[in-house]
Amino acid sequence: MTGEQEPKKSAPPRKKPLALGRGLAALLGDDNLVPGQPPTAPKPDDKVIDLPLESIEPNPFQPRRVYDPAALETLAASIAEHGVIQPLLVRPVERGYQLIAGERRLRASQMAGLTRVPVVVRQATDEQALLLALLENLQREDLNPLEEARAFQRLMDEFALSHEDIAAGVGKDRSTVVNTLRLLKLPDLIQDDLAAGTLSAGHARALLALGSAPLIRQARDLILKQHLSVRATERLVKNLLKTPRAKRPDPDKAYIESLADQLRANLGTKVEIKRKAKKGQIILHFFSDGELERLLELLGR
Fold first, then answer.
1. Does the annotation count 81 as an active-site position?
2. The pTM of the whole model exceeds 0.85
3. What distance separates the 2 farthest-apart alpha carbons in the chain?
4. Which segment, 99-103, 126-130, 278-282, is predicted with the most confidence on average?
5. What's the CATH code, domain 22-181?
6. 118's torsion region: left (phi>0), alpha (psi -120 to 50) or beta?
7. Beta 116-121 vs 279-284: how paired, if at all?
8. What is the mean pLDDT of residues 157-183?
9. Which is it for strands 271-276 and 279-284: parallel, antiparallel or unpaired?
10. 3-state secondary structure of 99
11. Considering only Cβ atoms within 10 Å of each terminal Cβ, which end of the chain, N or C, has fewer?
């Protein structure tokens, strides 16, 4: 027999209020929506009950593929000490209950040795369960950029949601949704780097401007070899794009040119970098004694 608890208060409003588009409202139904809250947020009239962990089956529609073991252990330790603060969201199925939202909390509760967890029971179709699971994952901050892009694309492909609908459902700007989706146009190698965290979304977005897959891969190799920042990557791409496609320099040369540009901006004078193999020269030009003094001051004499 399950014991009922007092209904929990709804989560505090997000900094950016959600105004759900018609597409989401039509798919989820008014009963599953709370004005100004994410679609998976508790409703004022929700009742929280305790269910045995063994009665809750995983969500077969769970879009998340990777779980950070260290983060799960941290969450499990917190749950062991404080319990599950936010109830899981489940739906009734023939064999008991099926998880809709709260996969990390479910796994961490198992790791913490709990036998029962607080849940909110909602009626949901398979389509609604998938949509809610996708939206819950997208509201998290620890998704890698590729997971986020794939989830956005899935919302478009399987639910015909617009960029505006997705933005409203996850509390992001439309431009953020559009720019994230663009990451799926990158070569598989770059997408693998994104998933592994080898490259950031900022690096990847800069590489998109190159267009050519071979050139993107060459630039990617240089980024990893030189440990380039996003800003340095943007300069590299800018230099690669300066030359017509048929005559574009190799990324190594473009990288040296980007460094020279940075030195020109910092020192306020003409700078040349000449490199052969692993050696080279940096030549600073000055056109008066006063300018020489200024450069010496900048360089700390």
1. no
2. no
3. 90
4. 99-103
5. 3.90.1530.30
6. beta
7. unpaired
8. 87
9. antiparallel
10. strand
11. N
Instruction: Locate the domains of the chain by residue range.
Output: 22-181, 186-298
Q: Which comes out higher in pLDDT, residue 62 or 198?
A: 198
Q: Which of 81, 103, 136, 158 is catalytic?
A: 103
Structure tokens at 250: 């190799």
Q: Between residues 172 and 83, which one has the greater pLDDT?
A: 83
What letter represents residue 105's amino acid?
Answer: R
* Rounded CA separation 57/298 (Å): 66
Give residue-wise pLDDT tens across range 243-265. 665 555 566 676 677 777 777 77
User: Pairing state of beta strands 116-121 and 88-93?
Assistant: parallel
- Residue type at 236? L
Q: Which pLDDT band holds residue 38 (cuts at 50, 70, 90)?
A: low
Q: What pLDDT does residue 65 have?
A: 64
Residue-level length of the chain = 301
Token reading at 114 = 């709990």
Give the helix, strand, coil percentages of the chain, each rounded to 5: 50, 15, 35
- The DSSP secondary-structure symbol of 4 reads B
> Encoding tokens for residue 190?
């770059």
| Listed residue (49, 59, 58, 60) closest to 84, CA to CA | 49
Task: Say yes or no to pLDDT of 7 above 50.
Answer: no
Rg (CA), the chain: 26
User: Which structure tokens are listed for 225?
Assistant: 């070899």
Question: 101-125 as b/e, with b when 16 or more CB fall inside 10 Å?
Answer: bbbbbbebbbbbebebbbbbbbebe
Would you say 261 and 272 are in contact if contact means Cβ atoms under 8 Å apart?
A: no
